[in-house]
Amino acid sequence: MMKTMKQYNEYEDKLVSVETALNAENAGYKNLSNKYDVECFCITKGTTKDKTLITDEWSGMIPDDMSLLAHRPTITGLQKWLREVHFIHVYVGFRTNLQKYYSWTYTLDMERKDINFSDIEVFDNYEEALEFGVNEGLKKLLEDL
Prior knowledge:
With 145 residues, the protein is an alpha+beta fold. The chain is built from 3 helices and 7 strands.
């Protein structure tokens, strides 16, 4: 059954965008909690990625004319996977002088040293900054594959 695009799951945890979901899928994301991500992005065969729809993957209701594009994890689930599996950390802070949030992505893996991946950019809310930082970590992970 098709769903409308929602931003949060039932626990008020932010669900990622299609770009972040695709980067996570390409980086080999696996849900660490042994629970299925209940939503996924699907696409009608022969259309562009901007026509992505959301469906309940677990219920087996992906229509025949569509295919799975990527699972749709929560942003904190993806952040946990980056931290626990790849030692990539995302820090989100607040700049009081700007009244904006920023993110900083880095690793504490001893083989790679302490490396900052992303330039500091500012955002209006915490969730945008967190997703930006997670996406930066995913992009760095994809470069290293």
